[in-house]
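tool_call: predict_structure(chain=1)
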Amino acid sequence: MGGCAGAAALLACALPLRAQAPAAASVSAAAPAAAAASAPAPNYAIDPTHTFVNYEIGHFGTTTNRGRFSTKDGTLFFDRAAQAGKVEVVMDISSVNTGVDFLNRQLQGKDFLNVADYPTGKFVSDEFVFAGDKVAEVRGRLTLLGKTNPVTLKATNFNCYTSPLIKREVCGGDFETRIKRSAWGILWGLTFGFEDDVKLLIQVEAIKMQ
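tool_result:
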């Protein structure tokens, strides 16, 4: 994170350029323009220095293999009063890190994540479920290896606070879900007992835009 040291640099890293740039003039058809106008504009930017996807997968019923992905970009619309939200997060699949170089290279290969052809993944959702004023679930769609499937993230922790470093509101939490990797075409090892079930643990923080 050397390029994101200091409060000002952290804020610059967290706020995507597309969120800071003025909107370009549009001459598109009226229907797409109306649809875009009705969609809520993002009011938070995903902070990649505090947003990661961790995974756990059983190793022949004996131990648990773990790894982590970084995020590249993301935006969030969040309205606690209206209990509404919309999020898009792009994951850097090529960043997979198990702590073992050999395993990293194996996971990046065509038998698993095939990062040469699919270097990123994406999670999008416009369905937030609240419990009181806190997010309890986020129901969305996860795209990996060019395949998209529904996924529900359950919150184990959620909070908003004012960062003392950047003087902005930050909202986020810890979420988890379980998926079957075969649903995204990751089939290696299934025939000889390498497990299909994968637990995903997501930590995410988003900084309110001004």
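agent: Residues 16-36 have pLDDT under 50 and may be disordered. Proceeding to next step.
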